[in-house]
Amino acid sequence: MDTPSKIYQEGLHGEASTTSADVTVPAPSSPETLARLFPTPRLPPSVLAPARLPGTGPEATAALLKNLKDNHERSHIFFNHFLFHNHAAHHLLALYALGAAGPVLDAAYEDTHLDHMRDAFVAPESVTITDENFTDYLGDDQYYNAWLKYFHRVVLEPGATTTSILEKYLFSDRYNIRYPQQGKQQPQMLNRFMEILLHPIIHVGYGAEFGLPGLIAEGLAWTACHPAGATTLVTRHLFELQRTTPVSDLERQEPKWMPESGSRLRALNILSLMRRDPRFPSKLTGKLEYGAMLRALGELINKYAEMWDCEIESEGDLERCLEEVAFVGALMYGVGSWDGDEAEYRADFFTAHVITSALFLPSICALVSRRSQTLLLRAHFLTSLTWWLARGRPGFPLKEFVASPLPPIPNNETSRHPNTFPGARRTPAACALPSSSSPYAAVPNPWYPILSNALVHPNEHLCKVQRALAHFNTLYGHREAGFAVEYLSKDGVDVDPEFAYLDGTVFLRVAWLTGAALGWVGEGEENTGVWDYQEFEKAAVEEMEMAKRQGMAPI
C-alpha cells in the first residue's frame, strides 16, 4: 500500500494521510496477555550490550511495566499523522537502565508523553492481517493496530523465539524480496526497519535487550507501517535486485583516487573518501532536496557502502565491526556537531540517532545468524551514511576537538564550553582524595553527574544519547591516540591525518557537550531542549501549518 502520512515520505515530503474523527478504540488486552508481553526485564543477551546501573528496587520495575503496558494499550505508535514517533517506551527503558526510581519513571511518562499522544484506534474496516495479505497493508500507519494484533500472534505463538521471529521477518528473502521478478510490491522489511531515522532498530533493540516480547511486537508493527522509500537503499544494496536505472553521468565522473570495485575498507576510511568526493553536496539538505539527493546519488552511496569490510564470519569480525560503528556514530554526531571551541555546540538531532541506534546492535546481533548480523550492520552503516550526507557530511577536526582538557579540569577562558557545572562548587573534606582542592575530589568521575542529569532531564532523547556514549566509553574508552591510523593504514588508501588524534576520550567529550547544550537541569539550569533540526525542523513546521489551514487536525 505504502501511502504513509506526510512529512517523512521520501525525505519529509509526500501526501498527508487523513483519518476520520470517528474512530474505534481497540478492545483491551487481558491482564494475562499483557503479563506475557511485558514480563520482568531480563539481563542483556550479550556482554557487548550495555550493563544496567543499580536501581531502587521492585518499585522501579513495577513503574516501568505499568507504564509500558499503558502505552501499549492506550497509544498509537506515531503520536500524530505526520509519522512523528511515540518515544515513551524508549524514554522509560533508558531511564530504567540508568537506575531511575519509580517516581521519575512515572513523571517521565505522564508529564513528557501523555499530553500529546495519539490514541490507539482500530484499523479501517477492522482488517485482519495474515500471512496471505501481508504485503497489502504495508507502509500505512492507519493499519498499525492490525499489524500489532498480527505480531501479537507471532510473538505469543508456542515455541516462537526472538531469534526465529527476527530471522523470518527482518532478514529472510521472503520478507524482503518476495516477488523479485514479478514487479509487485516487495515487502522490504529490512529497508523499512531502517526508515525514518532508524527508530525500529531502537524499539526492537529494547525488546531484544530487555527480553520484552511486547516491544518486539510493537517494533515490527511499526516497521510494517514505515515507508520503503528513498530514505535508504537497503534492499538494492543487500538483496541483489537487478538494477533498473542506467549508469548516470555523475557516477561516471569518478575521481582518480577512487578505489577499485571490490575493495574492502574500514568504515572511517570510507568516510574520508566520501568527504573528498566532489560529487556529494556539502550543505544541509532540505525537505525538497533530500529524496532528490538520494535518487540522484543512491547508486554512488551504495558503491561506497559496499566497500565496507563487514562480512561477519566469527565473533572477532562482529566485535571489530561493532567498534567501527560506535566510532562512526561518535564522529558523525559528536564531532560533526562541533564548530570549534568558541561556537555553540549544535547537537544534531538526526545523526544523534546513529549513535543511539548503534547501542542496540549487540543485543540484536546476539540473537541472529552470522548472515543476518552482516545484513543488519551493513544496512545500519548505509543508512548512517545517508543521514550524514543529509546533514552536509560534516568533517572531523579531531586535532582541535581533543585539544581541550577533559572535564573536570577547567577549560580555556575563551571557550564556549566550560568543563564545570553551574552553581557553587562542592567543598570536599580535607581527607578527600587526591586533595580537597583538586577538581577530581569535587567531580571524581564526570560520567556520574552526566548520567544523573540525564535521569531528571525532561528531554526523552538526552538519556538515550548519554547512555549510548557511556556504554561505548566503557568498551572503547581505553583506545589511545594513533590506534585508528594503525589499522586504517592497512587499507591502501590515504588516511585522513585527523584520525591520528582520535582516541577513547571522544565519547566523554561528546557526552559533556551534549549535556551542556541541553542544560544541566539537575544543577539548576533551564531545559534548553536545543537539538539542531535546522532545515528539517523548518520543513516540519511548514507542513504542520499547511495541514492546519487545510483542516487536517491530528487525531
From TrEMBL:
Top-level taxon in the UniProt lineage: Eukaryota
Sorted UniProt keywords: Oxidoreductase
Keyword Oxidoreductase: yes
Region named Disordered: 1-28
GO molecular function: oxidoreductase activity
InterPro entries: Questin_oxidase-like
Name under which the protein is recorded: Uncharacterized protein
Organism per entry: Hydnomerulius pinastri MD-312
Upper taxonomic lineage: Eukaryota, Fungi, Dikarya, Basidiomycota, Agaricomycotina
